[in-house]
Amino acid sequence: MADFEQRYVALDLHKAYVLVGGVNRQLEVVLQPCRVLTSKLDGWVTKHLRPTDLVVIEAGTNTWYVYDLIAPHVQRVIVANAHAIKLIGSSLVKTDKRDVLALAHLLAAGLIPEVWVPPQHVRELRTLILHRQYVTKRGTATKNRLHNLLMTHHIAPPEGDPFAAKNRNWWDALSISRAERLRLTHDLQIVEAGSAMIRQIEAELATLSVSAEWADQAAFLIQLPGIGLVNAMTILAAIGEIERFPSAKHLVGYSGMGARVRASGTTHRSGGITKQGRGELRAAMVEAAWKAVETNAHWKAQFERLAGRIGRRKAIVAIARKLLVVVWNVLSRRAPDRQAQIDAVSRSLMNWGTHHRVATTLGLSRAAFVRRELDRLGLAQEVVAIEHNGRRYQLPPSGSVPLDPRRNAVTAAV
Q1: Neighbouring C-beta atoms of residue 8, cutoff 10 Å
Q2: Is the dihedral of CA 142, 144, 146, 152 positive or negative?
Q3: Does the reported pTM lie above 0.90?
Q4: Is residue 371 a contact partner of residue 401, using CB atoms and an 8 Å limit?
Q5: What is the C-alpha separation between 105 and 74, in angstroms, rounded?
Q6: Which residues of 370-388 are buried (b: 16+ CB within 10 A; e: fewer)?
Q7: Concatenated DSSP letters for 177-226?
Q8: Quick check: 2 pLDDT over 70?
Q9: Residue of 150, 156, 166, 57 lying closest to 112 (CA atoms)
Q10: pLDDT per residue over 145-199, tens digit each?
Q11: Which residues contact 292 (CB under 8 A, 6 or more apart)?
């Protein structure tokens, strides 16, 4: 391999093109800023980049496509935190060419704030979670339109879920104008299509939850109060790899649930949470916290004590933060929750195994699935049966159901 000088190459990503520029160790421009069409980037990379190059790109919409394209051809690709880069490299004069060379200079100086590059299975899970959020938001907006239509005509909606299939005839019988009828029909179709999409997405999440990449981590989350299958996979998608966080404090900061602090001289002030982190992780933890305080005596007592002092809204955020600390502990230590209640954990595991027939797809009965996950958690070896929805399930002996999904077919008759 020929000896090449070290180059520091920056890529500024746009929708249709990529602006490229580079400098050497002496900060001399060795790659004049130029535009490369995204459709021709593959050929440009092969022709112009070298195995000794260090490359930086900003996190954006098509970052991972470009990252995967470039990584095999260079020494290393660094993905920069776009928000932090703006704070470091802000300038009164901004052009694309100036920006790309400024980025290359920061790379040469070792001042690039990096973001973690998730492996493929994490990217796929994040894609599913974001898609579910999109479909949910669209469905919620459409339902609000239908509620507004009823309010306009002073019509009270039917009891229960107004959008349940049993109420479709009720909607069809409404006395409204032709234009409103057309809009109502289309909105109901969007709601129905969205519900079907959510079911498909959650079926895929259920399948992923017992895959080799996620099964172990999912079990340790689903054991916790307030965390079901969808919430567990949302949390795992946001975290990616728990080993990235050396302490629970780092994970709390990543979620944006750390407290704001302003300290200068003798002045020290703290306020609400920073909200600088992954929004879906915060939302998942707050949702889990509400469920936990409703169903678990330990968390309910903590919530009531805090709510009396700081109010319910702040108290539930505090509970969500405490629950996130527990998430870090159980995932990083692969240990059961210290507050685990066997009956509640067993019910959660049973719900998981039943969700979209997860246990059946593994070749397991629901009872065998619960036993397998209890063994994984190191819980309740002595428990021989559980109650669920008024039915008693006899569990196989502890250790009789292998954890390896490839061997589960052997246990189908258990």
Answers
A1: 26
A2: negative
A3: no
A4: yes
A5: 18
A6: bbbbbbbbebbeeeeebeb
A7: -HHHHHHHHHHHHHHHHHHHHHHHHHHHHHHHHTSTTTHHHHHHHHTSTT
A8: no
A9: 57
A10: 999 999 999 999 999 999 999 999 999 999 999 999 999 999 999 999 999 999 9
A11: 224, 225, 226, 299, 300, 319, 323
DSSP-derived 3-state class of residue 234: helix
Locate 213 and state its tokens: 């990449």
**Burial class (CB within 10 angstroms; exposed 0-12, middle 13-18, buried 19+) of 3:** exposed
Residue partners of 70: CB distance under 8 A and separation at least 6: 11, 45, 49, 55, 57, 77
Amino acid (1-letter code) at residue 209: S
Q: What own/partner pairs with CB < 8 Å and gap ≥ 24 does 336-344 have?
A: 336/220, 336/223, 336/377, 336/378, 336/379, 337/223, 337/224, 339/225, 339/296, 339/298, 340/223, 340/377, 340/379, 341/296, 342/379, 342/380, 342/383, 343/386, 343/387, 344/225, 344/295, 344/296
